[in-house]
Amino acid sequence: MTRLTVWVTPRGGRDAVEGFEAGGTLRVRVRAAPADGQANAAVAALLAKALGLPGRDVVLVRGGASRVKVFEVPLSVEDVRARLAGSGG
C-alpha cells in the first residue's frame, strides 16, 4: 500500500494527472467543482483510471476539504510512478 499526497486544482478546465513535483507531491487537475465531494470523487476516479485500478481501490485518507489530499492505493511507489509515466502523467 502506498499513500499518495495529491495537490488538486478543482475547476481546472480538464481532467489530467500532471505528474510529480520534486517533493513527491502528485499534481492533478479536475473539471469538477469542490462542492459536495464532487472534486474528491473526480480525483479518485481519475487516479483509478490512470493507475489501472478499480475505483474501490483508491481511497481518500485525509484532506477531504483541502487542496492537498492523501489517497491510499494498493501499489508500491515504483508501480505508481511507472503506471503514471506510461499514462503520460
From TrEMBL:
List the InterPro entries hit by this protein, alphabetically. DUF167, YggU-like_sf
SUPFAM superfamilies in UniProt: YggU-like
Listed Pfam families: DUF167
Gene Ontology cellular-component annotations = cytoplasm
What PANTHER family does the record point to?
UPF0235 PROTEIN C15ORF40
Per the record, the similarity remark reads:
Belongs to the UPF0235 family.
Its recorded name reads UPF0235 protein A9A59_2115
Lineage of the organism: Bacteria, Bacillati, Chloroflexota, Tepidiformia, Tepidiformales
